[in-house]
Amino acid sequence: MNAPDPARLLLDAIIAFYNGPGRAGDSEARPMLDAVHADLMRATPAMPAPRTIAASTLLEAALPESAPGGAIAQAAPLFYWRQNPNYSAANMGATFMAGYGYVEFAGPKDALFHAPNIRVGLLVLGPGLHYPLHAHPAEEIYHPLTDGSSWRRGDEDWRIVPALHAIHHPSMIPHETKAPVSTLLSLYCWRGHTTTEARLIA
Ligand SMILES: [Fe+2]
After folding, report:
1. pLDDT by residue (tens digit) across 6-61?
2. Residue 33 falls within a domain, yes or no?
3. pLDDT on residue 113
4. What pLDDT score was predicted for residue 72?
5. Domain span at residue 43?
6. 178 C-alpha vs ligand 1 centroid, how far in Å?
7. Which of 73, 115, 155, 200 has its CA 20 to 30 A from that of 65?
């Protein structure tokens, strides 16, 4: 029998997450999560060659043991790490760029699995970093895997969000995030206009 494929096991763990704890509690996010789950079920292997960045070294120590942390750890050597091409040391600062990155589990480009209409991945934001106000056309839901990060959207106040709680960003709503004193790891999913990257709001 062949050894289990860590990428497939990861996708299965992410599907189970969006079918279980990821869909609990937040009625505002529910319709999108139902759609993301359905698209994940149809994703097909793509497997770009692995790529690391400075922030990818933060992953292992920050991952929780609870699901889907174990599946993420097992598949980590396969990850193609990325940064938003609209961000650079010039507009975000060198400290931010050294602690920020993401890997896409399913999506239209450079993801472990091809899914044309969604993006599902993991954001890493190093200790104390502030991801400043930005927006994008895609609808988005975050699920932090770690505790204590702060989130703000639109005209709302900052709120500290416990692990596994959904944070919903409708299309083009300005939003920002702060990591606590430890690394923030958060699942995210996008739906809608998935190929237009986020831009800072001046
Ligand atoms: Fe966003």
Report:
1. 999 999 999 999 998 887 766 788 889 999 999 999 999 999 999 999 999 999 99
2. yes
3. 98
4. 98
5. 6-200
6. 13
7. 115
CA 4 to ligand 1 centroid distance, Å: 33
Give the list of residues 6+ apart from residue 193 with CB closer than 8 angstroms, or none.
Answer: 136, 137, 138, 171
Burial status of residue 163 (CB atoms within 10 A of its CB: 0-12, 13-18, 19 or more): middle
Q: How far is the CA of 197 from the centre of ligand 1 (A)?
A: 9
Q: What per-residue confidence (pLDDT) applies to 30?
A: 87
Task: Indicate the number of domains in the chain.
Answer: 1
pTM, rounded to two decimals: 0.96
Alpha carbon 121 to chain centroid, angstroms: 4
Paired with 47 in beta bridges are: none
- CA distances 201 to 39, 87, 137, 174, Å, are 30, 12, 13, 7
**In-domain check, residue 30:** yes
Contact between 123 and 151 under an 8 Å Cβ cutoff? The reply is: no
- d(Cα 198, Cα 201) in Å, to the nearest integer? 9
Instruction: State the pLDDT at residue 23.
Output: 77
Q: Compute the distance between CA of residue 152 and CA of residue 136 in angstroms, rounded to an integer.
A: 15
User: How many angstroms is it from 172 CA to the middle of ligand 1?
Assistant: 9
Is 56 within the bounds of a domain? Answer: yes
Is 34:166 a contact under the CB 8 Å cutoff?
A: no
